[in-house]
């Protein structure tokens, strides 16, 4: 299984690299500004997985899921970018390498989504749901870890690709990106 995963990741990253010189893979991690310890561990694991593959993590830059994911990426030597809702870079969690100040409040959710090739949604509140909606409307794959389920006219909508754990989420994000090139 590990060999298959490594081959899949290598294949996806090779194809993405061939897409454009200097083009990097950016994956968004979205979730609530407050979260349980269990959810924080999940987010931290996602951050570590992304960093281990050289993928840039983009998030809202604040606490909760965003901070935990950035912490995991930072500890693994990865790059983190925080798209902040306010006017001060100092609002960023301590693991954001590149804070981007917008002064746009929750409208910054669209910037996050339009800056990534896939989104991993972990748990989350209504702000997370808005990011999921923007991503799906733009055709950006959404991978879900213990997050929202969608339904339209009483019928389940399976637009969110469900993942079992951090490694599965990153693998599914790469497969989805690879399929969208």
What features would you describe in this structure?
With 181 residues, the protein is of the alpha/beta class. It has a single domain (25-180), classed as Rossmann fold, CATH 3.40.50.450. 44% of the residues lie in helices and 20% in strands. A seven-stranded parallel sheet has the order 4-3-2-1-5-6-9, sandwiched between helices. A two-stranded antiparallel sheet has the order 7-8. Helix 2 crosses helix 6 and helix 4 (108-114) crosses helix 5. The protein starts with a helix and ends with a helix. Residues 16-21 have low confidence and may be disordered.
Mean pLDDT: 90
Tell me the distance between the termini.
25 Å
Secondary structure tally: strands: 9
Unreliable residue stretches: 16-21
CATH class: Alpha Beta
SSE topology string: HEHEHEEHEHEEEEH
CATH architecture: 3-Layer(aba) Sandwich
Number of structural units classed as domains: 1
Q: β content, as a range?
A: 15-25%
Gross morphology is globular
With strands numbered from the N-terminus, the spatial order across the biggest sheet is 4-3-2-1-5-6-9
Give the helix/strand class: alpha/beta
Number of helices: 6
Tell me the CATH topology: Rossmann fold
């Amino acid at each position: 299984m590990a060999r298959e995963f490594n081959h899949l990741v290598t294949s996806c990253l090779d194809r993405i690299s061939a897409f454009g010189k200097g083009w990097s893979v950016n994956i968004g991690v979205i979730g609530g500004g407050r979260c349980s310890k269990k959810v924080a561990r999940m987010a931290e694991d996602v951050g570590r997985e992304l960093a281990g593959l050289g993928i840039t993590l983009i998030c809202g830059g604040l606490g909760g899921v965003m901070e935990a994911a950035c912490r995991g990426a930072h500890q693994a030597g990865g790059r983190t970018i925080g798209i902040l809702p306010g006017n001060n870079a100092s609002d960023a969690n301590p693991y954001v390498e590149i804070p981007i100040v917008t002064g746009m409040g929750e409208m910054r959710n669209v910037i996050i989504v339009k800056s990534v090739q896939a989104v991993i949604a972990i748990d989350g509140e209504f702000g997370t749901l808005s990011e999921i909606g923007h991503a799906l409307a733009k055709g950006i794959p959404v991978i879900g870890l213990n997050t929202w389920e969608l339904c339209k006219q009483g019928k389940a909508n399976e637009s969110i690709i469900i993942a079992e754990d951090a490694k599965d989420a990153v693998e599914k994000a790469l497969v989805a990106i690879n399929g969208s090139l």
